[in-house]
Structures are given as C-alpha cells and as structure tokens.
Q: What sequence folds into this?
C-alpha cells in the first residue's frame, strides 16, 4: 500500500532540502575570505587571459543570484565546472569515481543491515549468555570510529595475517570485492553495532507488549506469534534506524576511502579541499547531499508503508 | 465429582446437584517474583463456575482479581509459582502444553481492559479477528472473514465489511472493545474471562458494551467470569458474585442478595461507599486505610481486620476460613452474629 | 513538579539533584564519569603533565619501541608517543567541548522558541528549517568549511556544531512541547510570569536531565567526528598533537611493522568515546524513568 499523499509531501521536502543545500554549497564561495576570483583560483597567480575565462565562466561580474542560477542550470545539465588542480571536468572526475564510493557504501550497507539485524534478533529472542555477550561487545563496537577500525583491521588482517590487501581498488570485480572487504567492514562496524542494539531493544519491547499477550491468550502458535506480532511491529523502529545509519555511511565513506587509499568521491573531495579546488568540492558535496536526502526520503517512505498510522492517519 | 449449590429459580429453594461445573479452581495460591522477592498475589482461592453461568469477581486494586483470570488462562508471567488446581471440564489445566494448551485457549477466551493496548496497532481489525480461526481451527480466510463480519453485526457494529479493513486507531474505544468481544467469541468458547472490559470506557459506552455482553452470553450459553471493581455492575450482569480482598475470596453470594444481605463487612463497606443516586447521604462513606495486596496482609489474622469496624480479638487471633451460610460463603469469623446488621450504617 | 523556589535553596537542590542523577546511573555510569573526569583533567593540565616534550623529534629514534621512561615508544618522527597523547588530549577534547556548548545552546533556544507556541507559524517555520538542515552530514559540512576557510580546528568545530544543532533542536523540541503543556506553566502565565522567565526558571531546569544526557552523547559523537576530520588533515594541523592527527601520522608505521603509536592513539579515542556513550545512554534511561 503506497501512501501517495505522504510520498508527495516528502518529495517536496526533498526538493526543498536539495535547493537549500545547493544554495549553501554555492554560497560557500562567497563566504570564503578574499575575492571569489582568488578563491576559485586557489590563490595561485593566473594570466589575464585565464582570468577573463574564469570571469566569463563563472559570471563573476553579475549579481549573486544570477551566478547561482547559472551554476544550478549548468549542474542540471551535468556541467559542474572544471577542476583547477586536475584540469578536468568535474563531472568526468565524478563519473570515474562514483562506482568506487557507491560500491563501498553498498557493501557496507549490506553488512550493516544483514549482520546487524541478525545479531540483534538472536540476542533479542533469546536470553542468557549469548545475549549478555552481545550487549557488551556491541557497546564497545558502537563507539569504534571507522578510521580507528580501519587501522586495527589493517594491522590484524593486512599486515599480520595477510588475508586482505591494505590499499587500493584492485582490478576486476572479484579483486574489487576482495579489496573492498576491509574498508567495508571498517565502515560498517559501528553502524552494525548500533543497528543490532536497536533491533534487540525493539524486539524485547514488542515481546512485552499487551497485544502480544492477547495473541498468546488466543492460542496463536509461537512461531506465528513472533513473526506476525513481534517482528512485524519491531520492523518499524528497526527499519528507521537502519535507514538513517545507512544514510550516514555516505559521508563517512570519505574517511574510509582515505584510510585505504581507495580512489572514491570522498577521497577526491578531501584532496580537493586541501588544495582549495572549490569546484570539485562543491560538485561532490552537492552529489553526496543529494544521495543523503534521497536515502532519507526512501527510509521515510518505507516507514510510512510499515506503519499505517502514519499514512492512513494523514487522511483521517 | 464435586457438588454445587444451585438456587432453583422457580421455587427459590436451594438444592445440591451433581456438579455441571465448567471451571473449578481449588485452593489456588500464586506467588510472583517482583523486584527480587517472591510475593503472594493469590492465597488459597477456590471458586466454581457452571456452564452458562456468569460469576462476578469484585475487588479493588491489589485484590488479585486480574491474577485470577490470568491463572485460569495460563498467562502468568515467567517465574510464577503456582499451587493448587484448576480444572476445566474436569481436565487439569496446569498440565496442559503445546497443542493441548492452544486448544484450551480456544475454549477459554479472554477480553482485556484497555483495547487499544491489547490489539496490534499495525494490523487490520479483520486480521485481528480472524487470526485464531485461521491458524488454530484451520478455517479458510474467506470463510473466517464472513464469520467475523457476522459477529461484528451481532455486537452492534453495522458497517462490518468496512470495519474489517480498518486499523485499530480508526475505531473509538467502545467500538474497539466490541470488536475484541466479537473476536473472543469467534472461536465459540465455553468460558469468557472478562478482565474489567468496561473500565476504560465512558459510562454510556459502558452500558452498551455490558448489554451486548449480557445478551451474547445468554444467547450462546457461554460462562463468564466478569472481573470488575464495581460491585453494582457485577450484580447487574452476574448470577453470583464473589468478592476478593488481599488475594482471598471473602464472600460469594447470589447477586441479588449481595446488597441487602451482605455476609462480610468488606462487601458492606464497598457497597456503602458507592454514591447512589437514589440515596441521600450527608457524607461519602469511605473505608479508612488502603486496600492491602496479598503479600502485605498478615497471614495469621483476618486480612480485613485492621480496617474493619466490627473487628474483635478473635479476628486478629487467627485467619478465618470460608463459612457456608445460607447459600453463600463468607470469610468473616463473626458472620453469624453480624448477619443482618452489616448493611450500611449499622454498627456491631 | 517544579515550584518557584528561593535562590539559595534552589541552588543546593540543583547541586544534589545533579549528584543524584549521576548516582542513579549505576556503577557503570559512575565508572564512565571517572574516566571522563580523568580525561578532562589531562586535557586541561596536559602541558604540565607531559614527561617529555611532545614536539621535539629525535630522528635517530624513529619508530623505536618502549625504551626506559618512554612507555609507548617513539613515533615516525622520533617524538615520545605518550607525551604526544597527553598533549593531544587537549586538542581532541577542546573542539568537541565547543561543539557541544554551541549546539546545545542554540539547539535549546530554537527548541524553546518553536515549542512556546507549539503548532503555530513560528514552530512550523523552525521545524521545516531544521528538517532541511538535516540534509547536511557533519563531515560533509566540515570538508566544505575546510575548503573555504582553510583547514583548522576552528573551522571544523563550527561546521560540526552547525550540523548537530538541528538534531539537538528536534529532540529538545519534543521535550519542550511536553513541558510547555504542563499545568504549572499555565498557572505561572496566569500569574503574569513572562515567557523568558518561565523558560529560564522552570522549563530549562526541568529539561536539564535530558539536556545533559543529550550533551554527553553528543560529546562522544563530536570526539569521533572531529578526530576523523583531523585524521583527514582538515582539522587540527600537524605538528600540533591531536589523537586523530596522530593516527594519520602513524598509519604508515603499521604497514612497516610499528603499530603501537597509531593503535595507542586509537585506544585513547575509543576509551573516551565509550565512556561518553555509555554514560550518555545511562543518563537517558534515568531521565526516561524519572519522567514517568
């Protein structure tokens, strides 16, 4: 059952977010100390000819909003400017690297959702040593930042055990997967812990609810009870938190890319920030914000589909 | 085979008949682990309900009445210690497990106090109602829905097809409670445990729901254990009423006699404490002190003695047993002397 | 629940309420609080506590392991690791402090303003604005800030603070709305109390346990985020000592077989973050129980 009105509202918010975000990203150039020209050129000295090209390109002699409009227009047509340091179209640079980042985030997301929820379910449905052990381990793992996890993984699995490579993308699909495994784990570890804790809490809470008692009193068999009443209801908070966590992976991926020397969007963005290559930073930031907002909207949609009180209630 | 005392409605005489009891609870004692210690909630409770009979169970909070219902339906929390016997249709309930237990649960249905908390909010009403039919009795979905729609009509919900597709939050408290009653009756139970079904509803809705419950009970010949804190409500619907205090039964009496000829000071006190539109009273009568739970009561004396206006030394010396008197039961040691003088306002 | 109390009584009441709150978090909570206190102490007094100069490099001792008084050995530039860790505590905890103070203050203010006339135009405007700002993950904003303003701890802290504020405001808005609807607020309004005085003398003190719990958890997140930014080279700049910077500096050591400096810095981060997270979670639970 698709909640159409809800979806429409969320899409409007999505567009609003992207517009505001794009404006902020664009306006960053204005905020920078020094003239926009100096910022764009990264403080390097440039020939008068290049100066005129830059001026024309970025419409620097025109009012602020006109510049913004040109920028957005270009962006919608796939033109995000030129990288000063790498002398390439930003869009080309992005296209070269987007699959690295997408692949890494996807790999990590699968780990987070599948393993996180599985551990949480096992701990939530049983009691005893397994459960307590899991609570302790996840408390520690949830606090493990991805770059710390990265160095630990590199130390243990790449240097000591030599099971996985420490750096680089690899060539070919299989090699890619092998190279991406440690980074994906580093990226996923703390999110996995969070998702499993939330899953466990949600399952426990649902099991204690009165409507489960009603079902028990009517003799519903245990397996069916757990599926239709405990898990189905717990799916709501579990999905929400998983979704938010996966969305956050998009930004944190940059750190992991740098740690493992992967040539993804995040790594490029960091590199460009250091060398003040603003066009690249703006382009990638815009793209990442877009992805982030889309994932969040999808999560909201999923939540509305799972909980009738949200979508149907919008009518009532 | 146990015997029961039945009042013949035609002659108003009592007679003892071989028991047609559907439910027999014999000396039930229940202890629950609460915050580390084990506390008693029920102490030696015995009662019987005959087929098609309505028994009211009245008590304040802490009296153990909800626990009674849960014990009968085997819904006690984990860690509960149970002594005594519960027999349903002459079979021991305590030893049931697995498939047998599920079958028992289809014959004994329970309806709860707060319908909103007790119905799964993310599933439709239709789903809620037909669940037991489909999974336990193997009724095909379409047939189950038809029966559910029919039952909704019987509880007074008219546009039943539409309601089946709705979610609990779209129904008012009264409607939801009626749907819960309907759902409970779908499996054609022989005993209905109603745990304060109308307490969460406003008075008008309360009256409607009670009327429906009463009518369905008579029509389908279902026995009912009706739990409430409202003495008058129980008396209106049930043939007999049992009163509980501090985890024990203190009086069992035919409902019509409960008001005019109570056999226990506690019953008289709660009857008197309820403001009645037909009486003029200068002050509201209240029982001094607060109601005790089973574990707070001293097991070596009458549990009500600390608050009882008629208490004497003999009441504080030993815990009284249930005394049979004139068709009823009483746990007051002084019942024979106090009888006839317990009705409100009269002192010993 | 809250009464208009005279100042000295209120002050002592608040003091013991704080301690009672801490005690209610149990042995785990207290242990975490101790760890945090120690870390704070080291952060503040670090420069006086260092056994050796954290900035002096001795190229003949590069990557040498524990030796004599140098408990954790030397890093890639021959500097004493333990001293750098102690000196780094200040940088690693200063940024998060600023982040938390900023985001909690602005967040609370926004939450109260929105909640004061809950459901009105101001509330909708603020809420929609916040929802839109949610689109910016902290790290992204920090990278942008570094690109524009130049990499520094200040730029990164401001960026992270701005990114956290909408989240804080949303959480506190819910609590503020609930508190706003309490009867005692209506009673005070009838007595003629002004909105600001009600907010400062009643709403905020009653929301304080929640604010503290949120601040504690956010501090943990801020430590992680800022360390990540410094790790990327966009926050604290080398040769300043900072745990994130140290991991970045010493990562090559792991590949060369000298993992200790990097792992030690990592351990410091994890220890502090775990302490803040656990304490924050406990505080949350206590707050929830108390409001029942």
A:
């Amino acid at each position: 059952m698709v909640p159409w009105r809800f979806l429409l509202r969320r899409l409007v918010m999505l567009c609003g977010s992207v517009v505001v975000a794009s404006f902020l990203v664009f306006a960053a150039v204005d905020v920078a100390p020094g003239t926009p020209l100096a910022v764009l050129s990264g403080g390097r000295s440039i020939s008068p000819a290049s100066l005129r090209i830059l001026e024309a390109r970025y419409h620097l002699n025109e009012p602020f909003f006109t510049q913004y409009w040109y920028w957005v227009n270009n962006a919608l047509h796939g033109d995000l400017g030129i990288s000063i340091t790498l002398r390439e179209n930003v869009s080309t640079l992005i296209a070269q690297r987007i699959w690295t980042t997408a692949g890494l985030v996807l790999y990590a997301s699968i780990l987070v959702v599948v393993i996180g929820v599985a551990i949480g379910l096992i701990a939530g449905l049983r009691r005893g040593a397994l459960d307590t052990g899991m609570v302790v381990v996840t408390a520690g793992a949830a606090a493990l930042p991805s770059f710390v996890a990265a160095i630990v993984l590199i130390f243990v699995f790449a240097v000591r055990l030599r099971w996985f490579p420490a750096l680089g993308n690899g060539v070919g699909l299989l090699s890619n997967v092998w190279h991406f495994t440690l980074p994906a784990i580093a990226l996923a570890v703390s999110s996995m812990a969070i998702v499993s804790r939330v899953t466990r809490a949600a399952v426990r809470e649902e099991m204690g609810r009165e409507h489960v008692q009603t079902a028990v009193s009517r003799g519903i068999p245990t397996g069916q009870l757990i599926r239709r009443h405990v898990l189905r209801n717990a799916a709501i908070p579990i999905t929400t938190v998983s979704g938010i966590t996966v969305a956050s992976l998009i930004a944190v991926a940059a750190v992991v890319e740098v740690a493992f020397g992967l040539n993804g969007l995040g790594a490029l963005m960091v590199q460009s920030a250091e060398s003040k290559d603003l066009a690249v930073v703006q382009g990638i930031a815009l793209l990442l914000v877009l992805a982030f907002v889309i994932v969040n909207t999808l999560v909201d949609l999923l939540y509305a589909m799972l909980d009738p009180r949200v979508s149907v209630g919008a009518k009532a | 085979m146990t015997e029961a005392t039945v009042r013949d409605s035609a002659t108003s005489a009592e007679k003892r008949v071989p028991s047609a009891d559907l439910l027999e609870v014999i000396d039930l004692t229940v202890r629950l682990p609460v915050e580390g210690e084990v506390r008693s909630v029920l102490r030696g409770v015995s009662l019987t309900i005959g087929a098609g009979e309505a028994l009211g169970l009245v008590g304040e909070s802490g009296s153990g009445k909800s626990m009674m219902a849960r014990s009968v339906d085997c819904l006690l929390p984990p860690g509960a210690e149970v002594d005594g016997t519960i027999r349903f249709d002459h079979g021991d309930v305590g030893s049931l497990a697995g498939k047998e237990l599920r079958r028992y649960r289809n014959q004994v249905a329970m309806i709860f106090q707060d319908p909103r908390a007790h119905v799964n909010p993310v599933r439709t009403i239709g789903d809620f109602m037909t669940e037991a039919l489909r999974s336990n009795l193997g009724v095909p979905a379409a047939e189950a829905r038809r029966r559910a729609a029919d039952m909704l009509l019987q509880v007074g919900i008219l546009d039943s097809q539409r309601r089946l597709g709705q979610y609990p939050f779209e129904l008012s408290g009264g409607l939801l409670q009626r749907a819960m009653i309907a759902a409970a009756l779908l499996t054609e139970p022989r005993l209905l445990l109603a745990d304060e079904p109308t307490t969460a509803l406003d008075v008008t809705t309360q009256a409607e729901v009670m009327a429906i419950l009463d009518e369905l009970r008579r029509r389908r010949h279902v026995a009912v254990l009706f739990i409430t804190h409202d003495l008058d409500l129980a008396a209106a619907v049930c043939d007999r009423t049992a009163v509980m205090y501090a985890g024990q039964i203190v009086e069992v009496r035919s409902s019509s006699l409960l008001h005019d000829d109570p056999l226990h000071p506690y019953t008289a006190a709660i009857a008197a404490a309820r403001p009645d539109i037909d009486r003029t009273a200068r002050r509201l009568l209240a029982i001094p002190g607060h109601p005790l739970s089973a574990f707070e009561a001293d097991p070596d004396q009458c549990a009500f003695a600390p608050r009882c206006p008629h208490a004497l030394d003999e009441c504080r010396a030993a815990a009284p047993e249930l005394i049979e008197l004139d068709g009823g039961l009483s746990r007051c040691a002084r019942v024979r002397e106090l009888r006839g003088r317990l009705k409100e306002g009269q002192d010993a | 629940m809250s009464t208009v109390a005279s100042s000295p009584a209120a002050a002592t009441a608040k003091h013991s309420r704080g301690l009672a709150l801490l005690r209610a978090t149990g042995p785990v909570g207290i242990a975490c609080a101790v760890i945090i206190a120690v870390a704070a102490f080291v952060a503040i007094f670090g420069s006086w506590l260092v056994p050796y100069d954290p900035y002096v490099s001795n190229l003949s001792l590069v990557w040498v392991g524990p030796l004599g008084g140098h408990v954790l050995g030397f890093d890639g530039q021959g500097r004493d690791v333990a001293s750098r860790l102690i000196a780094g505590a200040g940088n690693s905890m200063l940024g998060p402090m600023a982040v938390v103070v900023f985001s909690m203050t602005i967040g609370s203010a926004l939450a109260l303003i929105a909640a004061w006339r809950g459901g009105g135009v101001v509330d909708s405007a603020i809420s929609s604005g916040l929802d839109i700002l949610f689109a910016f993950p902290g790290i992204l904003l920090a990278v942008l800030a570094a690109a524009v303003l130049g990499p520094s701890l200040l730029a990164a802290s401001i960026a992270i603070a701005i990114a956290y504020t909408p989240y804080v405001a949303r959480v506190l808005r819910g609590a503020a709305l609930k508190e706003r609807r309490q009867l005692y607020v209506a009673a005070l309004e009838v007595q003629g109390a002004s909105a600001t005085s009600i907010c400062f003398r009643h709403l905020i003190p009653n929301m304080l346990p929640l604010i503290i719990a949120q601040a504690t958890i956010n501090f943990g997140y801020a430590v992680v985020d800022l360390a990540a930014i410094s790790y990327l080279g966009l926050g604290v700049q080398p040769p300043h000592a900072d745990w994130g910077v140290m991991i970045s500096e010493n990562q090559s050591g792991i590949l060369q077989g000298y993992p200790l400096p990097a792992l030690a810095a990592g351990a410091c981060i994890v220890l502090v973050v775990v302490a803040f997270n656990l304490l924050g979670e406990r505080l949350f639970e206590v707050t929830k129980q108390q409001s029942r």
